[in-house]
Amino acid sequence: MSVFLLLKLNACTSGPPPDACQAYVQESSVASILAMYYTLHTARQKDRVGLMRVLGTLANCKNDRAFEDPFLHSLVSTDMG
Predict the structure, then answer these.
(1) Could you give the CA distance from residue 14 to residue 67 in angstroms, rounded to a whole number?
(2) Model pTM score
(3) CA-based angle 15:5:33, to the nearest 5?
(4) pLDDT tens by residue, 9-40
């Protein structure tokens, strides 16, 4: 199942993110990158609830991709804009 669909489903429901979504982001670098792009999209839409739910999933990205400077810079600049 695509990470995008899991994250989209995650944004539409309440409660913690599904375990399958978190496991997929931890195991796959492609899933991690898609989750990062989804996070930027959610931040641009000013969806605070969705953003808070996705940020918890990003903490466990494969190879700590979510903590790289280009992504963090984009996220912070989007949040401030």
Answers:
(1) 26
(2) 0.76
(3) 95
(4) 555 566 667 777 788 888 888 888 888 888 88
